[in-house]
Automatic annotation (TrEMBL):
Residues 133-229 bind DNA. It comes from the Bacteria. Keywords: DNA-binding, Phosphoprotein. Residues 8-121 form the Response regulatory domain. It comes from Streptomyces xiangluensis. The modification 4-aspartylphosphate is found at D57. It holds the Pfam family Trans_reg_C. Coiled coil: none annotated. Residues 133-229 form the OmpR/PhoB-type domain. The keyword Disulfide bond does not apply. This is Response regulator transcription factor.
């Protein structure tokens, strides 16, 4: 039985043909699916049930998918959030998705959508009971492997599940430059997506949060990958 079986996905998409395709594919892969075409409809559904993941179009007829994502996350902090955005979306829109766990550009491959949601849920729905695990440490960074919390120089750093998974992989490979393809495979479970900019995007989110509390800690080896300073 997959880690996601029985998980509920809230699909918020105002184009009925796209919403139908997404719902059919997700149900085929044994997700429970709810669909809404508006911000208002999504909030009503989320009140009645507790989705494990939300797949949100950024542009909705009665509002902004990002604002909706923030509202849903406030109600349920462990909700997995994946955004759908136009391929030519301005950089500031993609940049504003930093509190989500992943984003997918249209037009999309439906199998990739299913794989991404499955991967996000694997990160956000750990087993119900976790054994106590020692913290991971690197310099003044400390990652609590039981509560998935991060501290730098004793101060708390608020990370999304994806940011945490990315930082943990870099810490576990301390002293090494990790190729971008390896990060895509281990953190996002992507295969053959070398052109994806998701790694660069999430490295920039991590840098913004970590560098606020100390010297830069993530290094870039151009054309190769990333490591810790």
């Amino acid at each position: 039985m997959g880690a996601h079986e029985g998980a509920t996905v809230l699909v918020v998409e105002d184009e009925p043909s796209i919403a139908d395709v997404l719902a059919i594919a997700l149900r085929y892969h044994r997700f429970e699916v709810m669909t809404a075409g508006t911000v208002r409809g999504a909030l009503t559904l989320a009140e009645r049930t507790r989705p494990d993941a939300a797949l949100l179009d950024v542009m909705l007829p009665d509002g902004d998918g990002r604002a909706l994502g923030r509202e849903l996350r406030e109600r349920r902090p462990d909700l997995a959030l994946v955004f759908l955005t136009a391929r030519d979306a301005p950089a500031e829109i993609v940049g504003a998705l930093g509190f989500g766990d992943d984003y997918i550009t249209k037009p999309f491959n439906i199998d990739e959508v299913v794989a991404r949601i499955t991967a996000v849920l694997r990160r956000t729905r750990p087993a119900d009971v976790l054994p106590q695990r020692p913290p991971l440490r690197y310099g003044d960074l400390e990652l609590d492997e039981t509560t998935y919390s991060v501290h730098r120089a004793g101060r708390s750093v608020e990370l999304t599940p994806t940011e945490y998974a990315l930082l943990r992989f870099l810490v576990r490979n301390e002293g090494r430059i990790v190729p971008k393809e390896q990060l895509l495979r281990h953190v996002w479970q992507y295969e053959h997506s070398a052109e994806s900019t998701v790694v660069e995007t999430y490295i920039s989110y991590l840098r913004r949060k970590l560098d606020a509390l100390g010297a830069p800690v993530i290094t870039t080896r151009r054309g190769v990958g990333y490591g810790l300073a």
